Amino acid sequence: MTAGLASRGRRLLSAAVAIVIGVAFLTASLVVLATAKAGVEQSVAAGIQDADLVVSLEGDSVPAAAYDAVAALDGVGSVRGEGYVSGERGPRDWVYGGPLPVSGVTLLSGQMPAADGEVLISTALADEGLAPGEELELAVPTGAEEARSTSLTVSGVADFGGADIMLSYGPTFAASDATLREIDPDLTYQLLAVELSGADDAAAREALTAAVREAATGGREDAAEPLVLVQTGAEAAEERVASLTGDTAVFAAILLGFGAVALLTAAIVIANTFTITLAQRTAELALLRCVGATRGQVRCQVVLEAVVLGVVASVVGVGVGTGVGAGLLALGRRVDLGIPLEVGLQVGALSLAVPVVVGTLVTVLASLWPAVRATRVSPLAALRPAGPAADRRRVGWVRLGVAVLLVGAGAAAMVYAATEREILAGIAGGVVSFAGVLVAAVVIVPAAVHGLGLAARVAGVPGRLAVDNAVRNPGRAAATSAALLVGVTLITMTSVGAATGQRTALGEIDRAYAVDFLLTTDGESRPGADAGAGADSGDGAGSGAAADGDDLDTAALAESGPLPVALEPSVPDTLAAVDGIAAVTPVDTAYVVLGESWGGTRAVGLDPATAGDTMRSETLVASVGPDTVGLSNLGMVMLEVEPGDTLPVTGAAGARDLTVIELGLGSSVVLHEDTLADLAGDDVRTGGALLRLADDAEVAAVMSDVNDVADDHGLLAEGAAVERAVVVQVLDILVMVTTALLGAAVVIAVVGIANTLSLSVVERHREHALLRGLGLTRGQMRGMLLTEGVLLALVSAVLGLLLGLGYAVLGIQTLLPADTTVQLAVPWARVGIIVGLALVAGVLASVLPARRATRVSPAEGLAAA
């Protein structure tokens, strides 16, 4: 067997390469996922994963009294609560504080808090002028008219990194629990991490756990088990990681799914390789049968060869995949994907053993059917000289029936999944339908080659021979194109799906918040509001436009809101000068009353003729009319209205019934500027500005500069620039990673085409020698094989594009929520690249087979046949 493998090493090389790539893909996926999971656990669950018990209340926070009751129990060593406080250093200058993280903190200066009243501040708070040894003065809200002043000593400055999500962004500080309780005596906790000191055995631990549960409930019988959740640290950590990494779990499924696809593509190449190799060894296997070997022994030999090939190639693939995984993680640390990856490379038994087992199993399974086919021929028939190849164009009706059944059932499952948002049904339907396409490929591929081959026949004898050779054996043509068909389908599906998902996601953000930034002034108290002054219900164009039959006191409702403050004239120019701001549009503002009870709401007046410079959606701009009012999703929920409903809107100068549209600008509502003038009258001020970022802007830097301008001029800054940037970054990374990983499937496909063409050249050795003897030149022979490879590659590309587009449309419809309007996007440039790469694959795949076919002289080839 070993000698046989050595003698056929070159023929099996492509199968080995396919196994190495597929296994490396799977190994890299497992290593990256294991490392990412360990990083997330260290980041978000470090404070609880080593705790003996974790106490929480379902749907509520744990009160301070429960903390004290649990801490007072005999057998409880220590209690650490996760609670957060807040206070103001100045007007709208909020600072947030939380417990000291147990790990992941980098001390930059000073020291860790050693006494009550000391805090460790973030770099953002240090940038505001605080240093170790100085006092942090906070005004803490108490619910009364005046806030309580608190003075804290800064012990040090630290980079919290990803140690605590609440502390990692903005001006924050960390302190001991006692200090946090001093700041807020009514502090509540998300959970309590409990360390036990008196649980020596299982019974004692169970009794202490029950005591902790009872103490956390405060002895109330009505607050029993459904409310209080007591878990081990490991259980709580796993639950937290799962709740915070839903997207990571999806990404894990995507990575492992692509790994499975790569192995499937490799299996196709392996099966094709073994089929043709065993066909060429028919005489050898027949001779073994003649000297006494049974069919079982021959099959066993082939399977053992597959086992050896699979194990060796899989071990190599694991080594390659581990290196690739380490490289991807290093790149991820430099790019900052938003996932904590600072832990070491996680390479465990699972990451090493599973790929080897899977790679070997795939290789063995791929070799079984070729082994069975090779041993069906009787020894005497196999030893006879091979005659002319039988006509293999006939395709069984059973195969066509099975193909139609599989495609129909799969398509029905995908349509059902897209309608009902059943992801598993969609995946199953895609797999089943694609299996049907592969079964029907023996009909589809030759027919498509015939159609595309009309142009090739014009090239003369090589073109006509190429078309005839490509369709002479439908099974061989289907096998040659199968691997590339898988790769092109997947890349098209991923590209179209990602582009559609990105456009749809950004469209949803546009509807939720139509501009990158909105800056507005604060309102000021209306002079004499308590005396009913400041509005004239009999004046203004809208004074008589209240809903029929409503006893609406327009003046009283309008006066419940403040007066807007005019924007300083220099602000628009200052904002326009910020690097990264593409457009600035000043807007009118006023305060209006929505409905009959919700007052003091800021309204922004838009002019559709100019708003398009800063708003992201032309559709939304066009929807703003004199009779519309734009509300955010939250605003519609609070007012219990939907798009198309009628809503009374009241201003200082009158009221009007307006049609609700889905267009919110943060906490503000949107009116046509003429409508705002009619309703608010003299209250209208140029009190805001819309900002649009340049497409290549650094969002964090622009946001910092905009906030500086807002602070200098006392403005409120809102916007969806950060959300948009996060969505774009995540989708870009997803497309980049999946496209790169799917490149492995394309490489396997190229190897498969080259391998199948190369082995088919060997299979048609006598035929090619006869053609050379009849006058076909070496150049014509190379042209024939080149045309054959390009035709098969082009057919694979076209079919893959059509299938990928269909799968992407149904897939994205399945993944997105039912109320989401899918906006199809086809990246035509990438589609063109896919077709170009497929043609290049066909050209490259034909080079070595053509070279081999032309090196043998006609006489030598006929003599050896």
Automatic annotation (TrEMBL):
How does the record classify its membrane topology?
Answer: Multi-pass membrane protein
Q: Where is this region: Disordered?
A: 526-550
Residue intervals of the ABC3 transporter permease C-terminal domain: 258-379, 741-858
**UniProt keyword annotations, A-Z:** Cell membrane, Membrane, Transmembrane, Transmembrane helix
Q: Which residues cross the membrane?
A: 12-34, 249-271, 302-331, 343-369, 397-417, 423-456, 477-499, 733-762, 783-808, 828-848
Q: Does the keyword Cell membrane apply?
A: yes
Task: Tell me where in or outside the cell this protein is found.
Answer: Cell membrane
Does the entry feature the keyword Transmembrane helix, yes or no?
A: yes
Q: Which InterPro entries match?
A: ABC3_permease_C, Macrolide_Exporter_MacB
Query: What family is this?
Result: Belongs to the ABC-4 integral membrane protein family.
Record protein name field: ABC transporter substrate-binding protein
